[in-house]
Write a structure and sequence with these properties.
With about 300 residues, the protein is α+β, with helices and mostly antiparallel strands. Helix content is about 30%, strand content about 25%. The protein is built from ten helices and eleven strands. The strands form two sheets. It has a seven-stranded mixed sheet with strand order 6-8-5-9-7-10-11, sandwiched between helices. The longest helix is centred in the first third of the chain and has 17 residues. It is globular. About 45% of the residues are buried. The structure holds adenosine-5'-diphosphate and magnesium ion. Adenosine-5'-diphosphate binds next to helix 1, strand 2 and strand 3. Its EC number is 2.7.4.16. This is Thiamine-monophosphate kinase. It comes from Acinetobacter junii. InterPro entries: PurM-like_C_dom, PurM-like_C_sf, PurM-like_N, PurM-like_N_sf, ThiL-like.
Length: about 300
Amino acid sequence: MAEFSIIDRYFKRASHQDVSLGIGDDSAILTPLTSQQLVICTDTLVAGRHFPLDTSAHAVGWKSVAVNLSDIAAMGAQPHSILLALSLPSVDETWLAEFSRGLFECCDQFNVALIGGDTTQSSQLTITVTALGWIEQGQAITRAGAQVGDYICVSGQVGDAAYGLHHLGHALQQRLDYPTPRCDLGQRLKGRATSMIDVSDGLAQDLGHILEASGVGATLFLDRLPIDSALKALDQQQAWQYALAGGDDYELCFTISPQKFEELSRHQSDVPFTIIGEITQQTGLLFKYMGEVYPLHVHGYQHFA
Ligand code: ADP
Ligand code: MG
C-alpha cells in the first residue's frame, strides 16, 4: 500500500472548522487570533522503549496524542491540532486501522484536529506527534514562577502507570496505556498557578525542574501523596518509589498561593488535585513523614542513563 493510500484511508478526515488548510498540501495553514500565542511541543514514542511491544495499536494511537496534549495542558494552553510523523516497519492494515481509531478518539475527546504529518518506512516503529495550542498573550504558565510559601499540588493519582507497567494485566495498566491529559484543569490554572509541569518522568524529578527553574526549594509530605489502593497495599518504600520515581503519569504538578488555591477549589474541574507540599526558600527537595523530616532517595527516568 502506497504512502498516499495510507494517509487517505487512515488519517485524512473532514477538516476542522478553524483549520484554514489541513492534510493534502505541502503544509497546513492556521490563522491565529492576534490576541493569542502559539504553544507548540513534540514527543516521540519508540516501540519497546516508550511502550511495551505488545501494547495494542489502539492504545499506542491514544497515547501518542495524549502525551503531547499533556504538555500543552501543562502550559495552561488550549490544545488545537497535531501533526503525525509515522515510521512503520511494514504496512499492517489491522494495526493502522486500530492505531488511527485510538489516535482520533483522543483527538475527538479534546477537540483536536490532525492537520498533517509524514509517513515513512523504517525498521523500528516510531511515532512522533507535534501538538499545537493557543493561549492568550503572556498567560502561559512556565516552570519558572514558583514562590516561597506556595502550595505544591498534583492532579489525580501518582504512581499508577509505573504500577501498571510492573503488574501488566492489573486494572492500573489502563493508566499506563490510556493516560488522560488534564486539559481542563491546565486552562483553569491560568492566572492562578505560579508554575506548572506535567509529570512524565516521575514526580520528584519533574518537581525538581520547577524548583531549579524557579530558584526555590520544597518540602514534600509523603503521607499526602495521592496514591491508589493498590499502592497503599504495598510496602511503603515501594509505594513511594512508584509515586515519586515512576514515569508516565501525565498528571499536572503546579504551585499556587494559598489564596489562589481557595479560589481554584471553589470550582469543579475534570480531575481532583491534592496539596502535597510547599515551596521553601532553602533549595533542594526535603521529604517529611508524619511531620518529621524523612530521608528518602528517589530516582526519575533518565533516557541516556
Ligand atoms: P511532502 O512530500 O510535500 O512532504 P507528503 O507526501 O509527505 O508531502 O504528505 C502529503 C500530505 O499528507 C501532507 O499534507 C502531509 O502533511 C500529510 N501527511 C503525510 N503523512 C501523514 C500522517 N501520517 N498523518 C497525517 N497527515 C499526513
Ligand atoms: Mg513527506
